[in-house]
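Supplementary Note 3. Input sequence used for the single-chain structure prediction.
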Amino acid sequence: MPTRTWVPPGPYDLHRTLGVLGRGPGDPAFAVRGGEIWRASRTPQGPGTLRLAARPADGAVAAEAWGPGADWLLERLPALLGADDDPEAFTPRHRLVHAAHRRHRGVRLARTGLVLESLIPSVLEQKVTSDEAYRAWRLLLRRHGEPAPGPWDRLRVMPDPRGWALIPSWEWHRAGVDAKRSDTIVRAARVARRLEEAAAMELTDATRRLCAVPGIGPWTAAETLQRVLGAPDALTLGDLHLPKIVGYALTGRRGTTDAEMLDLLTPYAGQRHRATRLILLSGTVPPRRAPRFPVGDIARL
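The predicted structure, written as discrete structure tokens, is reproduced below.
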């Protein structure tokens, strides 16, 4: 069982740095257990499981890995934990952002280097509630994934590209995934090798590569590349909630549009994703005025 440690150069928050990689409660590929983070991935060398734990005594992060992909995961451990990120490049321009930046100095932008792993759950989140998307991800991995290497049999590794492409239509329906999203995932799986090349590209080129697949637009590309590249400027556009949260946090006004959000974030050019991440960490959201959007279930149709 190979191991590795990484010592951050300054304050570090393991759980908030990697928490964005999990897809809701019960994610079969990501879990927190006794303060440790467990992550199952399909690497270019095959399935691998990573167990990560912070060591307060020396400030290090210790990792153990299992499976054919273990060496790949450990080789890229520093990048995953945010070693390539440069939080010092960020300058807060609003009082709320400054307070969040000071409070969360240990948060870095993780870089997974695995495209399909973040792309598929992002496609599942298109135009539905988070709860619906998380349920679909859980059901699909439990039924079509494989047991993750290592000592914890609860974890599952997502299917390989061929496995995604071979999921029958009724299984997508059972998971609550409509034809538009399932067709997009199948198209992506069929060109998986070309999409994985985006992990070594600059943000603009990587976005263009992903958006060449019908059904993948700027929203999905940004949500994917935030995780794959740890890109500080991969701003999510077209989101139902984000502009309203940003607008309310920075101005106190409701109903902010994407265009207005872009204007508000102009001072953070090059760091707009990091700015919105800090705004979300501040917990400042507009009070709810309407009932929560109802959760649909096409599996019952």
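The beta strands are 3-6, 30-33, 36-43, 46-55, 60-66, 146-147, 156-157. The chain has 15 helices and seven strands.
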